[in-house]
Design brief:
The complex is a heterodimer of chains A (about 260) and B (about 500).
Chain A lengths: L10 E10 L2 E11 L4 E5 L6 H9 L4 E4 L2 E4 L2 E2 L5 H6 L2 E4 L11 H15 L7 H14 L5 H4 L8 H15 L3 E5 L7 H14 L5 E5 L13 E6 L2 E6 L1 H10 L1 H6 L7
Parallel strand pairs in A: 3-9, 3-10, 7-8, 8-9
Antiparallel strand pairs in A: 1-2, 1-4, 1-5, 5-6, 10-11
Helix pairs in contact in A: 6-7
Chain B lengths: L15 H4 L15 E3 L6 H10 L4 H16 L22 E3 L14 H9 L13 E7 L2 E5 L2 H6 L3 E4 H7 L1 H7 L10 H9 L4 E5 L8 E7 L10 E6 L4 E9 L6 E4 L2 E6 L4 E8 L11 E12 L5 E8 L4 E4 L2 E4 L5 E10 L4 E10 L5 E11 L3 E10 L7 E11 L4 E10 L5 E10 L2 H9 L4 H17 L4 H14 L6
Helix pairs in contact in B: 2-3, 3-8, 6-7, 9-10, 10-11
Classes of the chains: A alpha/beta (about 260), B alpha/beta (about 500).
């Protein structure tokens, strides 16, 4: 199958180039994610994985070009970050920032209402919304007390990541890019976060999991695994690729040929 | 907000920032009403004229004349961290009243409809049926009080809530007993000026054991050009009494600077509680710093009784220059003083504000929470003094002083001072300076908020501990006001 020509792709990225402060980080990256698919992007440090997440979400400070960069058929690169979010893109942050004094529930409602306004839909009822997010927190096995706290203020690493998953559950994006959602988690937190991801998988929701280690993939089975090296996807395959990486390390991919692509 | 803009297509998101570069000041209109304005300038004759117009008792005239004599000997203070051209005190008119207001407040049915309409437009309907439930309002227009609502209901429980002019007519003994006992006539230059020429303001008296059944509020409006407003407010809570009072202020947009020099005195006796809240939205001047109100105010409370408590809460979003330090003298044993403040300086606004806590009685406690927000070319200064005299055994103070910077041209300054003459006093001071970070901005926008909504969210979070001190009816208003006053602060 020649995935690059598939018009039904949710996310289509071809020839994505990005530089920051004059240094090119992404050097012509291709990525195609179909509806409901889970893709894992692995790779050594400093290879551009987090840059990929940042430029997809529209973070300022990068110079970005692409032959194609579309989400659901809409060109992403000209859009403000909030417009990309309204389009259905969610970024789970590696280091979620603190918002002192800002209530978690309040942020969630503001985010949902912002999207509703952008789509011309009515705002949510505050009481109903609270019931909805309490139910979501329970389904994910998270403590409801998380909702009453200020966004990430005084949160442990695990709590921050759980909070990202909760936001994901509430915002219901069509594409969730999770940047090292597994970093800084102990085994229990990792299991809980992974269970959350599995629960939120659906034919209407795709995931791009950016991770450094295979341990997340022991709990979340990816449909496609990519290895990123030096600003490009150097190899793609199925979960078998993870085992090969485990055995031979990332350096092996650097020498590998595109023939590895399925 | 986007809510009023209708559906928005995803491909062309609205650029909210471009649309908000013009700062809207909703209260900037002028009421076209015939006013009696005395000619500019200040001498003994003007002081006598004001007193005469208000049919004041002789003691009041004598008091004013003494204040005027004191003021003549004083010099305008320049220790504040604010800059302004010299104020020409001879160019100000010291008394202005709507002609229709006659000799003082009347029943609502008799108030000039134009005045009622003015307050309606400001969101302060004076018809009792339309008012916020449980809030009594005293409306002061230029130099005079034009209406006070819910008087009857308050009188039934013994609470006096009226204009200062009326208090001088009907309760001169109470005024005489307390006026100037907290802020003496010669306390400072602006207090002396106020004492000489003050025109109106609110008078509140809550007798022993009475919990005031509703929020009291005064709404100050400057309308006439080239006039000053010098209001004087006095609140007395007797033993075991409690009262919550809120003031709001607005003025038309004008290119000239106008002076507002108020004095507020609070007296709390044993076990009494006074909660005094301010939502100050004087015209701040335009984006280039032209026009706006000079808000030079002296506010002080005496916690005279045992276990008495005074709480100042202020949200200062308006005025070209703010110079005020609501203070507490903690005289009674176990008395408590609190100060919660949000002060915004956007564009070319300057705010030099803070508090003074003077611990005199044993085991007195005080708290200062100050949140300064600077944006544009704004300059925010926190100035505070915490003092324990030798009698203040076991005094305690906690001060938290935070500054939030938005943009790269604004300034935040702090001048805290701590002075203790009692070794058992325990004072803590914490301070922080932060900005709205790019990471916070990106995080919230990734969740779908606009840059402007994000700024409001972060700023409101920063101010949360102060807003929650406001009476509920006003907390939302304060939050909205803050959002409006920061429009155009980014982009």
């Amino acid at each position: 199958m020649n995935r690059t020509r598939n018009e039904n792709m949710l996310l289509q990225i071809r020839g994505l180039r990005a530089s920051i402060a004059g240094k090119q980080v992404l050097k012509g990256l291709d990525l195609h994610v179909g509806p409901g698919e889970v893709h894992a992007i692995m790779g050594p440090n400093g290879t551009g994985k987090s840059t990929l997440a940042a430029v997809l979400a529209g973070k300022a400070g990068y110079e970005v070009e692409a032959d194609v960069a579309q989400l659901a058929g809409v060109d992403l690169l000209g859009l403000e970050p909030e417009a990309r979010a309204h389009l259905g893109l969610f970024l789970g942050f590696q280091y979620p920032v603190e918002l002192p004094g800002v209530n978690n529930t309040y942020l969630l409602r503001a985010a949902v209402n912002a999207r509703h306004r952008a789509l011309g839909e009515p705002e949510v009822d505050a009481y109903d919304f609270l019931q909805t997010i309490k139910a979501k927190a329970r389904e994910l096995g998270f403590d409801e007390a998380l909702l009453a706290r200020n966004v990430n203020e005084g949160f442990s690493g695990g709590e921050r990541k759980r909070n990202e998953i909760l936001q994901l559950a509430v915002l219901e994006p069509s594409l969730a890019v999770l940047d090292e959602i597994d970093s800084g988690l102990d085994i229990d937190a990792l299991r809980q976060v992974a269970a959350g991801i599995n629960r939120l998988r659906s034919p209407q929701r795709s995931f791009v999991l950016i991770t450094h280690y295979r341990r997340l993939l022991d709990y979340v089975a990816a449909d496609h695994v990519h290895v990123m090296v030096d600003g490009r996807i150097a190899a793609s395959g199925d979960m078998g690729l993870v085992d090969q990486l485990e055995e031979r390390g990332y350096e092996w991919v650097g020498d590998a040929q595109p023939a590895l692509v399925e | 907000m986007l809510a009023n803009e209708g559906p928005v297509t995803l491909r062309a998101p609205p650029d909210a920032l471009d649309r908000t570069l013009d700062r809207p000041y909703g209260a900037g209109f002028v009421t076209d009403i015939e006013s009696e304005v005395i000619p500019p300038g200040l001498d003994e004759g003007v002081v006598r004229l004001i007193s005469q117009r208000k049919h004041e008792p002789q003691f009041m005239l004598d008091w004013r004349l003494a204040a005027y004599a004191a003021w003549r000997r004083m010099k305008e203070p320049h220790w504040g961290n604010v800059r302004h051209p010299p104020i020409d005190y001879e160019a100000i008119s010291y008394f202005s009243q709507p002609k229709s207001s006659g000799s003082g407040p009347k029943s609502l049915a008799e108030v000039d409809p134009k005045l009622l309409e003015t307050y309606e437009k400001l969101g302060i309907p004076l018809h009792e049926r339309a008012t916020l439930a449980g809030v009594a309002v005293d409306a002061v227009f230029d130099s005079v009080s034009v209406a006070t609502t819910f008087r009857k209901q308050l009188a039934d429980v013994g609470v006096i809530f009226c204009s200062m002019s009326e208090a001088l007519q009907h309760h001169p003994e109470l005024v005489r007993k307390y006026l100037g006992t907290v802020v003496p006539v010669s306390d400072n230059f602006f207090a002396a000026l106020n004492s000489a020429v003050f025109s109106d303001g609110s008078f509140v008296y809550v007798p022993k054991g009475v919990k005031c059944p509703m929020e009291l509020s005064s709404y100050f409006r400057i309308n006439t050009a080239k006039s000053g407003q010098f209001e004087r407010t006095l609140i007395i809570a007797e033993e075991g009494a409690s009262v919550s009072y809120l003031e709001g202020c607005t003025a038309p947009k004008r290119d000239e600077n106008q002076l507002h020099a108020a004095v507020v005195e609070l007296v709390a006796l044993d076990d009494a509680t006074i909660k005094y809240s301010t939502v100050q939205n004087w015209y701040p001047g335009d984006q280039n710093g032209v026009g706006g109100i000079y808000n030079f105010v002296t506010k002080r409370g005496h916690a005279r009784g045992r276990r008495s408590r005074i709480t100042w809460t202020q949200v200062e979003t308006g005025a070209a220059i703010t110079w005020k330090y609501p203070s507490c003298w903690l005289i009674g044993e176990d008395s408590v003083g609190e100060f919660y403040s949000v002060a915004v300086s956007n564009h070319h606004q300057q705010a030099d504000t803070g508090s003074k806590m003077v611990h005199i009685g044993r085991n007195t406690r005080s708290t200062i929470i100050s949140k300064g927000i600077s944006a544009g070319h704004g300059r925010s200064t926190y100035r505070g003094r915490v003092k324990a005299v030798h009698t203040a055994q076991g005094a305690r103070n906690y001060t938290q002083c935070d500054s939030l910077l938005i943009g790269s041209q604004c300034e935040a300054h702090t001048f805290p001072s701590i002075e203790s003459a009692n070794p058992s006093a325990h004072f803590e001071h914490e301070a922080s300076t932060s900005r709205v970070s790019d990471d916070q901005m990106f995080y919230c926008r990734q969740r779908g908020l606009t840059a402007e909504d994000t700024l409001n969210l972060v700023v409101n979070g920063f101010c949360k501990n102060v807003f929650k001190q406001l009476p509920m009816e006003f907390a939302v208003e304060a939050q909205n006001l803050l959002n409006v006053s920061l429009e155009g602060a980014i982009g």
